[in-house]
Design a protein that fits this description.
single chain, 332 residues, alpha/beta, Rossmann fold, eight-stranded mixed sheet, six-stranded parallel sheet, 14 helices, elongated
Length: 332
């Protein structure tokens, strides 16, 4: 399957836990000219380091070699979003030259912590509604980045892919977030499919990490035949969600590859790896003198379908060859 593209220019604890960073005194002894970049990550060290490989690789290609021309102050939130404001404030207090924020909640926490340090965000669905920028073409503040939003929701395509695999699925759970504009847009986009495909949608609202597991369990208890993920919180809690649903033998449909890698039956959406790689170009621009306020927010361009055959086998599902031929990646 060829990569699908949508085009557009401007068109995410007790003290010490969850925080891994270079101490301030190390930064103070950094060689003259070494630029300091804070990297604010929502997950645990191992998973997020893998996710960020494309960013560091691209930075090296652009001439930013760790320890020689750049140093990274990495902060991991360990999937505990309630700690992000404090961790963001601690990172800002060390005064890096620039901060990279991965995930919507991480970007919002950094936004609250500083209005002066340049920030490049990635994996944000709607940066205007999230209050990160005032305009995509001219952000106007200290932030710019990559948005994964497209002109139209991809949720209907995810539902259709699910039906291609499970044509008899009628009772579909939707894991949503009423505080997330992207989630609400997805729910609105699939509403017309209810009558067309003879579906019953069961929506569970999870507006915080604390309520997330209970929402997943509620869908399981309501005997849905599959769960469509329309909630960005799922990215940080994907391992636990996959554990719960696999045990209940309920397939998950995700919106990006990390969800499929964690155990979702399939994912269809913008490539996070590509978004994070592209963020390196914006970091390079800003470190070389561009102002975030004048640097357009860029739209993700690569859309990918990932199918997890390991999950299919565990669930007793046979994925049709026609779907496999369309997949950009198959996990076996």
């Amino acid at each position: 399957m060829n990569k699908r593209r949508f085009l557009g220019v401007a068109v995410g604890l007790p003290a010490g836990i969850g925080l891994t960073a270079h101490p301030a005194w190390v930064a103070a002894q950094a060689p003259k000219g070494l630029r300091r970049v804070g990297v604010f990550l929502p997950d645990i060290r191992g998973r997020d380091d893998i996710l960020m490989e494309s960013f560091y690789e691209e930075m090296r290609r652009l001439g930013w070699v760790e320890g020689k021309t750049v140093s990274y102050d990495r902060v991991y939130a360990d999937s505990q979003m309630n700690l992000m404001p404090r961790l963001a404030a601690e990172l800002v207090s060390r005064k890096p030259d620039l901060i990279v924020a991965i995930s919507p909640p991480g970007s919002s926490a950094i936004k609250q912590a500083t209005s002066t340090i340049p920030v490049v965000f990635a994996v944000v669905v709607d940066p205007i509604r999230a209050g990160l920028v005032s305009n995509l073409a001219r952000p106007g503040g200290n932030m710019t980045g990559i948005t994964q939003s497209s002109a139209e929701s991809l949720a209907p395509k995810r539902v259709q892919l699910l039906r291609d695999i499970l044509p008899n699925a009628r009772r579909i759970g939707v894991l949503g977030n009423s505080l997330d504009p992207g989630s609400m847009a997805d729910q609105a986009a699939i509403a017309p499919l209810v009558d067309k495909l003879n579906l019953t949608l069961v929506v569970a609202d999870a507006t915080s990490a604390e309520h997330f597991e209970a929402s997943v369990v509620s869908l399981i208890e309501q005997k849905v035949q599959a769960i469509l993920i329309a909630n960005g919180i799922a990215l940080s809690l994907r391992a636990r969600m996959a554990e719960l649903t696999t045990s209940a033998r309920i397939p998950l449909v995700g919106f990006n590859a990390p969800l499929a890698e964690a155990g979702a039956l399939l994912s269809y959406g913008p490539s996070i790896v590509d978004q994070i790689r592209r963020a390196a170009y914006l970091v390079d621009k800003v470190l070389r003198g561009a102002k975030p306020s004048d640097t357009p927010v860029e739209a993700a361009t690569l859309i990918e379908l990932v199918v997890n055959l390991k999950s299919a086998s565990a669930l007793g599902i046979t994925v049709p060859r026609a779907v496999l031929l369309r997949a950009d990646r198959i996990i076996e």
